[in-house]
Design brief:
Length: about 90
């Protein structure tokens, strides 16, 4: 029952019923490869982020004071007293 609900909500039933996917095994393999590639990209990005952070901290930057990670628009506007609405959505 849960599998059926997942297949309906994810659109997989629609793909199969409307013949949008000609080979389900190839399709699933492609999804799996894409997920693995995305996971690897994220792990590599996290590792690089940590390396750069360690170099910046060695130069005296302090996380949360003058070094920020993955900061959001509203945080930038608040911390630096700027309005970014003209260049953002």
């Amino acid at each position: 029952e849960e599998y059926t609900m997942f297949l309906e909500k994810s659109g997989i039933f629609d793909l199969l019923q409307n013949h949008l996917v000609s080979n389900l095994v190839d399709y699933v393999t492609g999804v799996e490869v894409g997920m693995d590639t995305n996971g690897r990209k994220n792990r590599t990005g996290d590792a690089m982020e940590n390396i750069v952070q360690s170099y910046l901290e060695a130069e005296g930057y302090i996380l949360g004071e003058n070094l920020f990670k993955e900061i959001e628009q509203n945080e930038i506007e608040e911390i630096f007293s700027v309005d970014l609405s003209a260049i953002t959505n």
